[in-house]
Design a protein that fits this description.
46% of the residues lie in helices and 14% in strands. The chain has 17 helices and 14 strands. A nine-stranded mixed β-sheet has the order 3-4-8-7-6-5-9-10-11, sandwiched between helices. It has a three-stranded antiparallel β-sheet with strand order 12-14-13. Strands 1-2 form a two-stranded antiparallel ribbon. Helix 1 packs antiparallel against helix 2, helix 7 runs parallel beside helix 8 and helix 15 packs across helix 17. It starts with a strand and ends with a strand.
């Protein structure tokens, strides 16, 4: 398998790594960890930031305080205005756990055996994760790629996001995104179309579908992946929560792909966090002067890996595995000729015929276009205009 490099670092995600934490615990340790679980959950339900929760837990362990003595914990480690909420939630914690269970939400904290290992060493890791769906730690511990970009994307960006996610999923890579409108939604849909695994990181509670129009995507992800949030259930989608969740999108991946981003896009916040975490960055180039392309083109100028073709990029990632199964290997001479003259931007039938007329009659071009559409390699995006799917 070939190795690839970009200025932001070496690609690591073709290696199928599996992480393991801890060892078999004694009964006393299990009991102690249960109390720590209670403290983690109570502090999280109090809407305390993750870094503050981890600081308190660390102080508890260093002071060798029994985590079952919750009144002492509140007195020694919480501010006066935090204690009332802490006591109220801790004393009804069984009811809170029952609500989580009925909502199908699994709670993972920083000390849990199934906490994602990729998040352990990032700056400001989430202390608690609320996970809904068919969560399997292996989905995240192996190869993952995050795809993010503009909410108001072009058809070109939509196609690129969908097809990148689809082809990567066919190769067994888990796709991570934020389930926002536009590029994020298309990435999830592309992975689902390949019957692959996809994970959505939300800026609201895991029990809330936002935006509501994505309810079908939300329900499909629950069957084939997971919905993850560090925010307690019923937390509404507030704007300040979204930049925070971006560090989880980048933290869980091995590489980040940006598909269309404006000058001050939130996607560029994700890029900054990914760089801080040591992740590889890739960008899909766009047309000069297009506001949706400014962010990606600037990233490429700064040294991000440039995706010049879906097939080439996926083959570079998956190597011989993709090449052996690629539908492009079975094209006829006419199909290859026509395909080579279609771009990721809409290409007019007139231009396709002009570029192939020395080798093909017009009727042959039409027939070949129909064949390429049957193979899902090309689609007609508007009357007599065609774009590549792969």
């Amino acid at each position: 398998m070939r190795k690839n490099y970009c200025r932001y670092g070496r690609i690591r995600y073709y290696k199928r790594r599996t992480y393991h934490r801890g060892s078999q615990l004694q009964k006393s340790e299990v009991i102690m960890n249960t109390y720590y679980d209670d403290i983690y959950l109570t502090l999280s339900l109090c809407m305390m930031p993750g870094r503050d929760i981890l600081t308190i837990i660390d102080k508890l362990k260093k002071a060798d305080i029994n985590p079952s003595n919750y009144k002492d914990i509140a007195r020694d480690f919480l501010k006066a205005n935090q204690r009332e909420a802490f006591f109220r939630i801790y004393e009804r914690l069984d009811d809170e756990r029952e609500k989580l269970y009925k909502s199908g939400i699994h709670v993972v904290n920083y000390d849990s055996y199934d906490y994602p290992a990729k998040l352990i060493n990032i700056p400001d890791p989430p202390a608690v994760l609320y996970i809904k769906g068919n969560y399997d730690p292996k989905q995240i511990s192996t190869a993952c790629i995050s795809i993010v970009g503009a909410r108001s994307c072009s058809e070109y960006g939509s196609n690129m996001s969908y097809n990148l996610a689809r082809e990567l999923s066919l190769g067994g890579i888990t796709i991570i995104s934020g389930m926002a409108r536009g590029i994020d939604s298309e990435a999830h849909k592309g992975a689902l179309s390949a019957d692959g695994t996809t994970i959505a990181i939300l800026g609201c509670g895991a029990d809330i579908c936002y935006p509501r129009e994505n309810i079908s995507i939300y329900n499909s992800i629950l069957k084939k992946g997971a919905i993850i949030s560090e925010l307690p259930p019923n937390t509404p989608p507030i704007s300040r929560n979204f930049p925070l969740r971006n560090r989880i999108i980048s933290g869980l991946c091995d590489a980040l792909i940006i598909v269309e981003a404006r000058d001050k896009s939130g996607s560029l916040i994700t890029v900054d966090q990914a760089l801080e975490q040591g992740k590889d960055i890739y960008a899909v180039p766009g047309r000069i002067g297009d506001p949706l392309s400014y962010g990606c083109n600037r990233l490429i100028k700064m040294g991000a890996g440039m995706i010049t073709g879906i097939g080439d990029f996926v083959e570079e990632i998956l190597g011989d595995v993709y090449k052996a199964n690629s539908p492009l290997t079975d094209l006829t001479n006419h199909e290859r000729l026509v395909y080579d003259h279609i771009d990721s931007y809409p290409t007019a039938l007139e231009d396709i015929y002009k570029n192939t007329s020395s080798d093909m009659e017009f009727i042959d071009v039409l027939q070949t276009l129909w064949d390429l559409q049957d193979k899902k390699l090309v689609k007609e995006c508007s009357q007599n205009y065609y774009v590549r799917v792969i």
